[in-house]
From TrEMBL:
The chain crosses the membrane at residues 7-29, 49-78, 99-118, 314-333, 340-361, 373-394. This is LPS export ABC transporter permease LptG. Keywords: Cell membrane, Membrane, Transmembrane, Transmembrane helix. It is found in: Cell membrane. PANTHER family: LIPOPOLYSACCHARIDE EXPORT SYSTEM PERMEASE PROTEIN LPTG, SLR0882 PROTEIN-RELATED. It comes from Massilia suwonensis. It is a multi-pass membrane protein. NCBIfam families: LptG_lptG. Signal peptide: none annotated. Pfam families: LptF_LptG.
Amino acid sequence: MKVLQRYFAINITQAVVFVLFAFLGLIAFMDLTSELPSVGKGDYMFQHALLYVALMLPGHVYEVMPVAALIGTIYAMAQFAQSSEFTIMRAASMSTRMAGWMLFKIGIVFVVITFIFGELITPRTAPLAEKVRLSAKGSTLASEFRSGMWTKDNVHAAGQNGTRGAIVGSRFFNARQIRPDGQLIDVRLYEFDNAMRMRALITAKSATFLGNGTWRLQEVSETQFSNSRVLADPGAPVPQGQTIQSTYGQETSAVATRTIASLDLVSEITPKILQVSRRDPERMSANELAVYSRHLAENRQESERFRIAFWKKIVDPLAIFVLMALALPFAYLHTRSGGVSLKIFIGIMIGVGFILINSLFSHLGLLSTWPAFLTAVAPSLLFLLLAIGALRWVERH
């Protein structure tokens, strides 16, 4: 059985690597084609485009590995069936369960490689690729909003261990631009108390992160609204015969403004959170997704999209086992059922179907507020049932 295991591993690995490199070559060509119109803008030259495409390839390895494992395994199984090798293996007392166990052990290697690319390599190369691209163009990171990047964090009581003290309010964080080195340009901070009454407006020309949850603001203008007397509650009933002149929740006549050269600000927001907030969840590691999802939940912001992406990061590499199991029935199909090329075509269609259904469930789960784990695992369960049904059918026929 060790000889068969080694024989399976060699043939399947060779096929999967070949398919993987074919996919990566096609994707790299398409990425390079899309970058060519930007060549010549600023200092962005052809070598920068090549470097950008190369740094984005690890992310594509993570994306196409499940489909490459499916097609490569189908090719190897179809070759075994065409040469009658699989029939001889079965005659030598190899059961379907034994063949499935051998595929499972081979799949472990592909799953580990996928996790390494998804968790260790891609989260480092994707930001570096963006940094190379922007640095060569001489531009900065910009948000999809005209007003820049927005995020939110909590305001903690002063002198209570930085960001771990009691929450006394909330802060809306706005930066018009983010440089590749993490420096913020044209910063505005809007601070509110727990009753959502505005307490401060801080503007700064730039902000640099010093570490330990501290930002240093430069050329700061700070406006404090210190009067907390409530004029009227908009929801309170109005006594008969009386009118309310104003329904604002606070009186803003007590205002103090100062201008200083620099100000150290303690905040839960870090450059990592800012980078994560504008990145594609598919390019983030599970750890980054967990941290950012927790940050959004603590600030009462919508985190469903990132929680779904987190579970997909865990589940999608494990789908390799399911897709390789789905390839096993092709070894039972004789040559009269179709040649190798037909089976590979069917494998490509199955792979495309898996990608489409996986994406469909992600959008449906987000729109229908399905549990994040169920949304991520449902496509794999569906294809697992398909693999079990296919194996039972070929064994009976």
